[in-house]
Protein 1
Amino acid sequence: MKTLISQGAEAKIYLDKKLIIKERVPKNYRIKELDEKIRKYRTRREISILEKASKIINVPKLISFNDFKIVVEFIDGKKLADYLDSFDNKKRFWICKLVGNNIALLHNNNIIHGDLTTSNMILKGNDVYFIDFGLSFIDQKEEHKAVDLHLLKQALESKHYKHYNSSFKAVLDGYKENSNNYKLIIERLNKVEGRGRYKTKNNKIANF
Ligand SMILES: Nc1ncnc2c1ncn2[C@@H]1O[C@H](COP(=O)(O)OP(=O)(O)O)[C@@H](O)[C@H]1O
Ligand SMILES: [Mg+2]
């Protein structure tokens, strides 16, 4: 039996036995032809990046797909959004470090996740799985890698406030271990943050 477990802005997520079905739903405010084109494009892009990422880090196995739908393996683990705060410091540190290790591996391959929040990371055993490549893209620029890290920092700050400094520090420790361009990306992160104090790249007011 198929159960709806989440409904985001873009997609409905169903759990069916051990499978996750991510279905991009029509947006009625877009004209039909354009809407189909966008949903197809985004589905295809997510599949292609998921496949690329699967050769580098732990991600759910792709089972099948069509124009609007992706079926992947259900990762039966602990979503970090729900569990990170409940772990003791030692466990939290190694998990955050592992998260940083994984982000660096993606970035070394120019994969920008685009939505690095703890809702998109699942701990299973001693592995962290990254999910939701719906906003991902390929780009080699330091700017995008820095913004990717910055978004995770913001997510930690808002969802895991109590330990966010030490958690993000552990992420960066892990990132440093694997990154092939640590210095320049961190320099850029500092610039992004200086800028972010007043406005983000999209001119949205942030951090107030
Ligand atoms: N492969 C998976 N294994 C386990 N849970 C998943 C999986 N894919 C999605 N989920 C659950 O569904 C939620 C939403 O899925 P996600 O792909 O992140 O879509 P959205 O774009 O709506 O954020 C996740 O936060 C997670 O709880
Ligand atoms: Mg998500």
Note: The pocket of adenosine-5'-diphosphate (ligand 1) is lined by residues 5-6, 8, 10-11, 13, 20, 22, 60, 72, 74-75, 79, 119-120, 122, 131-132, 134 (CB under 6 Å).
Protein 2
Amino acid sequence: MLRVAEIFTSLQGESTWAGYPCFFVRLTGCNLHCVYCDTPQAREAGRRMDIAEVVAAFEKSPVKMAEITGGEPLLQDGFVALAEALLTAGATPLLVETNGSRPLERIPAGARAIVDVKCPESGSANSFLEANWARLRAQDEVKFVLSSRADYEWARTQVQEHALVDRLQAVLFSPVHGRLPGPILAAWILEDALRVRLQLQLHRILALP
Ligand code: SF4
């Protein structure tokens, strides 16, 4: 049994898959308290659903790209069974958005993790599980959501120390909407010739769910 905050279809907003129509399953519950959280309703709201009910909704949808998000989806016992059921039902690709505070090995091999590593000014500093750096796989993406120059410099250090650019599908630097102007972040990336991708929060720009 799962606790599901909502199921909806929208454009994927925050990865290299941004812009594609996507079937979202937002699981209830989160263990962090980010200052810029845009899904506080996912902390406690929602209803209990069987995995079969979620898969039935996916099978009715014409959209075959799927994402399990939250909240923090890895907190739920039923997460692995849900991910495997969506893969079996034809989710292509299946994305899993996680804050990286729980072991990533629970994410099935056929899924792609979008790991949101929390920066010092996120309100959830030091939440990333150190052992997870070694658990990242070639198909995974890491995202740093940045509020300031201090966050940028911290993220740049993580990228270099853990050789993320060479190991992963993508490394994304995203400015917090309303806190760090995109053009300033763009200038810093260019100045350092950092091989990361600037990512704007598409769903916020377009005011999508
Ligand atoms: S991890 Fe995500 S859902 Fe949880 S508080 Fe942070 S932004 Fe919100």
Note: The first helix runs from residue 51 to 60.
